[in-house]
Design a protein that fits this description.
The chain has helices at about 10-20, 30-35, 40-50, 55-60, 80-85, 90-100, 115-125, 130-155, 160-180, 190-200. It is mainly α and about 200 residues long. It has 2 domains: about 1-25, no CATH class; about 35-200, no CATH class. Helix 3 packs across helix 8, helix 5 (about 80-85) crosses helix 6 and helix 8 packs across helix 9 (about 160-180). The radius of gyration is 19 Å and the shape is globular.
């Protein structure tokens, strides 16, 4: 009897799964690695979910210079979960992106525990036909927030929602041209992004 299958019959598939019994899994691996996004963006999200980004909390632990407060909201101590999910500035940005797609109710609030938990929660509320495109949007939005944060820290750029919108729109269009076909399944979001940016909304 083969104990690793319900039928008691040996199979290569059940044998392969048996190799990973007791291992620690990376819960959002499929949402991350199976989504369309440049490798550098996926790698950043992987680091962010594992709290390995060099934000103020990590710098402080190592006795390095760090911002006293979040460079985007200037209100709370900075860590990567705050930066991507619960920061006032970030939540305003996510609301803009998701409301443009008719998904304003999926925007994070101040009570979210982590970026990964918020992502896992909201993806269940997205129709299956739109999930792959939605996952790409989440990766792109987080990447834009990280770039904007770094500009504020290293170049003294003042945080700007309008600037974020423009960067997001440009990247969105580039990703579509580069092969992110699933973004089209999200509907007229790109046209809404463009009109809002042009109007300064």
């Amino acid at each position: 009897m083969w104990i690793h299958s319900s039928s008691g019959q040996f199979s290569s598939k059940s044998c392969y799964k048996a190799f990973f019994l007791g291992s620690i899994t990376f819960e959002p691996w499929k949402r991350l690695w199976k989504s369309w996004a440049p490798p550098k963006c996926k790698f950043f999200i992987w680091l962010a979910i594992r709290n390995k980004c060099w934000t103020a909390d990590r710098l402080q632990k190592r006795g390095l210079d760090h911002p006293e407060v979040c460079p985007l909201c200037d209100q709370e101590p900075e860590n990567i979960q705050h930066l991507l999910c619960t920061c006032v500035f970030s939540r305003q940005f996510w609301y803009y992106i998701l409301s443009s797609l008719g998904m304003a109710n999926l925007s994070p609030d101040s009570n979210e525990s982590t970026f990964a938990d918020w992502w896992a929660k909201v993806i269940k509320q997205v129709h299956k036909s739109k999930r792959r495109g939605f996952n790409s949007i989440i990766i792109l939005g987080a990447w834009c927030l990280w770039l904007h944060r770094n500009k504020a820290v290293f170049y003294g750029v003042r945080p700007s929602i309008h600037g974020m919108k423009t960067v997001f729109l440009d990247e969105f269009e580039c990703w579509k041209l580069a092969g992110a076909r699933h973004l089209e399944a999200l509907g007229p979001g790109a046209a809404i992004f463009r009109s809002r940016v042009l109007l300064g909304d």
